[in-house]
Amino acid sequence: MTIASETRLPDALEVLRDAVADVPLGLATIDRDEARRTAKAVVDQVDDYLLPRLRDLDAPLLCVVGGSTGAGKSTLVNSVVGAAVTTAGVLRPTTRAPVLICSTADRAYFADDRVLPGLARTTGGEIGGDAGPGALRLVVRDDVPAGLALIDAPDVDSVVEANRELAGQLLGAADLWIFVTTASRYADAVPWDLLRTAQERGTALAVVLDRVPPEAVGEVADDLAGMLQRADLAGARLFVVEERPLVDGRLPDEQVAPLRDWLHGLAADQEQRSAVVRQTLAGALDSLDGRVDELVRAVEAQEAVAMALRSSADAAYDGARSAVDVAMRSGTLLRGEVLARWQEFVGTGEWMRSLQAQVGRLRDRLAAAVTGRPPPGDELKVALESSVEQLLRAEADRAAERTVAAWRALPAGPALVAGRERELEAVSPDFPQDASDEVREWQGFVLDLVRTEGAGKRSTARVLSLGVNGAGLVVMVAVFAQTGGLTGGEVAVAGGTTAVGQRLLEAVFGDAAVRALAAKARKDLAVRADHLLREEQARFDVLLADAGPEPGAVDRLRAALRDLAAARRASG
Ligand SMILES: Nc1nc2c(ncn2[C@@H]2O[C@H](COP(=O)(O)OP(=O)(O)O)[C@@H](O)[C@H]2O)c(=O)[nH]1
Ligand SMILES: [Mg+2]
């Protein structure tokens, strides 16, 4: 390796590591949990193994003894070392804080956070002192050869999840797995999952078939050897250890001698050791492609799910917008209270009937009626306000309810609304106040409009004879009385009025100035309704923004993989 490549490859790895650490997996997609595990395993392996190994290819060989519960791992480690360095026992789980045993000469390699930086080092304490799974107990011995370190790992199938995870993490940190299984357990699923992982990652592997009844050695060993071969693991060195009475908790020396000699041989032979290091290193680097690809697919799934959730919220709120629009145009707002107040405003039915048909006079009478009686105008204004508010609130309620219903039926949706259904299924608490403010501001806008547009325009002046307030109310009513380009009182307002009254209304609403003002007023109200609904939808947008993938995550992963590949090519 050249100097440049030695710096480039770790740099590229760190970039990839950060991209993987930040991988957005907030939405509960089907493969999310699996992807999270993969992401954690990649980050751990980069920190625990790849970076330290790339920075120091000559550091001691780290051999991790892993395997199933009660397989005899700790007993084997004590027997290989020739001393009680780790706790064996029938009580499960025994190995909680993993133990790292190395030569006094190699202490500096393991005492700090060069490898496994996430595990605090403990050195003191008696054997079996439980430092918990967040720590690594360091045992330094003069009789362990330099260049070799052993870790006694927790059970890969421990009943304690933290122990299982730690076992997996430690295997990810190993230059060499010493995989311990027994005559009775070697066909179990969990060990084979891990052996397959070793195969996929090209990890250097030795398998210890432990606790084999002496009479079954041939048969069981052959069977396991066949299984390893079929799993494409024929290259793994297989050691068979017979079940024997223990002396001082340790196996008879002749049972462990082959394993110990092989390990000591590796420690002594620089070339062989470096071959093991390179095999596992290349395998781990190669495996990143497939593992990061899996994450890319998981993020793409997040994106697809986020898009489906977003469009269902969009659809619900677009529906609300058009429902408000339809209601405004269809005249439905001019029923009930508004209609009653309107009729009060323009006069009773009798008053209408008594009027002559001449539009000019009618308008005069109307003006007189309005200017003479301000209170009905106020009531009409209030009735209009609450009618518009109710419409907005009903549609905003419906949109919220529809969004929650849609989300509950979509992948990852239920988790987003879980525990907040009641709150999210209705308008937000601020909505009623906001809507009322908005409608009142709109009414103010209409009055301003009448005032400014009316000033100096002869055409508008006529309706202005009703006064700014009266004209404003006529314009507001006109907003809800005009449908599809048609004008006038033929819409709902007509209900309850006579043919004569009808013509009066037509005359007022048919006025070009009123129509132009109403069009502007309706546009303004639509903008305000849109604004209110957008604010409402924002609650759902925020949920998605918090949990959904940020844009560019996939590109970032892919770019990091490409740069890593380039850095590897450059390093030869
Ligand atoms: N007789 C006998 N007992 C063993 C042997 N290996 C392990 N044991 C016992 O099995 C139990 C579990 O062993 P241990 O080394 O703690 O297994 P680990 O969970 O894989 O670390 C302990 O009580 C050991 O004493 C062996 O080869 N012979
Ligand atoms: Mg143990």
Structure in words:
The protein is α/β, with parallel strands linked by helices. It is built from 21 helices and eight strands. The chain has an eight-stranded mixed β-sheet, sandwiched between helices. Helix 1 (3-21) packs antiparallel against helix 21, helix 2 packs antiparallel against helix 9 (270-330) and helix 9 packs antiparallel against helix 13 (374-409). The radius of gyration is 40 Å and the shape is rod-shaped. The N and C termini lie close together (7 Å). Mean pLDDT is 85; it is low at 1-7, 348-359 and 484-501. The structure holds guanosine-5'-diphosphate and magnesium ion. Guanosine-5'-diphosphate (GDP) binds next to helix 3.
Q: Main sheet, how many strands, which sense, barrel? A: 8 strands, mixed
Structural class: alpha/beta
Spatial order of the strands in the main sheet? 3-4-2-5-1-6-7-8
**Global shape:** rod-shaped
Rounded Rg = 40 Å
Quote the beta fraction.
5-15%
The separation of the N and C termini measures: 7 Å
How many helices does DSSP assign?
21
- Helix percent reads 55-70%
Chemical compounds bound to the protein: guanosine-5'-diphosphate, magnesium ion
Name the poorly predicted regions: 1-7, 348-359, 484-501
What is the number of E strands? 8
The helix-strand sequence is HHEHEHEEEHEHEHEHHHHHHHHHHHHHH
State mean pLDDT (0 to 100 scale).
85
